[in-house]
Write a structure and sequence with these properties.
Helix content: 40-55%
Radius of gyration: 18 Å
Number of helices: 9
Structural class: alpha/beta
Number of strands: 4
């Protein structure tokens, strides 16, 4: 079936299962210290895995997680990329969420939309440029663009609310670092900042690093040295900064 793209429960389980498998393949003890790291969609996976680790994989000795530019609120992401260079990501996300919740795409999409959805499902990064600047309003039965549709349709709004990372009562039990460029052109800066604030409100230890390097890709490059230093510290049980109350 379709890859359940940006479904935070699915990607959390995938990352936690990968950790289990990695330890087994390395012939390492099951309680060997581990850390999670990801950027963009991978940042969402790392964030979700950190939230769900204690429930889904309590045997893992998770020490910390680096979360780069996470798509923690998919409605905010849709607002940013609809009709832009990365519009194909909306099709990926639509296909992934509808598949995860067993919703027939024809409920919301017209023939043009179904064709676009099927085509996007067979593409990767380079092929996704074929959908750049796509007008999502031409794909729906109602003539609404995707951001309007997911706000007005109760079923879709409920799905995306459930997929929001950092919901009340959920937080990582280990130190986390969130890094996000203030000029991110794919995932809004406030999406990562607001995730950090939600986690802080739940009592998590959060280091938040705003980055000045332009664009989504630039933010990734700038964050790599910080990521390495943070994970080195957490894996060695050294102190890490807590930014809660300061961002």
């Amino acid at each position: 079936g379709h890859h359940t793209y940006v479904n935070h429960i699915e990607e959390a389980h995938a990352m936690l299962d990968a950790a289990r498998s990695g330890l087994e393949l390395a012939h390492a003890p099951k309680d060997a210290p581990i850390g999670f790291a990801g950027y963009s969609q991978g940042g969402g996976a790392a964030a979700a895995a950190a939230e769900l680790a204690s429930d889904y994989a309590p045997e893992l000795d998770l020490k910390g997680a680096y979360v780069g530019a996470p798509p923690a609120d998919l409605v905010q992401v849709a607002d940013r990329i609809d009709g832009g260079l990365y519009a194909a990501f909306l099709l990926y996300a639509m296909a992934g969420q509808l598949a995860a919740y067993d919703v027939d795409p024809a409920t919301h999409l017209n023939e043009t939309g179904l064709t676009a959805l099927a085509g996007a499902a067979e593409t990767c990064m380079v092929g996704s440029l074929a959908y750049a600047h796509l007008d999502s309003a031409t794909l729906t039965h109602t003539g609404q663009d995707f951001p309007e549709l997911v706000r007005s349709d109760a079923e879709l709004a409920g799905i995306l609310a459930e997929q929001r990372i950092g919901a009340p009562g959920r937080r990582p039990d280990v130190p986390v670092m969130i890094a996000h460029s203030v000029t991110d052109d794919v995932i809004p800066y406030r999406t990562g900042r607001d995730l950090g604030r939600r986690w802080c409100a739940e009592g998590a230890r959060v280091r938040f690093d705003p980055l000045l390097t332009p664009t989504h890709v630039g933010g990734h490059v700038a964050s790599l040295p910080r990521m390495g230093a943070f994970l080195d510290a957490t894996l060695a049980d050294r102190w890490t900064a807590d930014s809660c109350g300061w961002f």
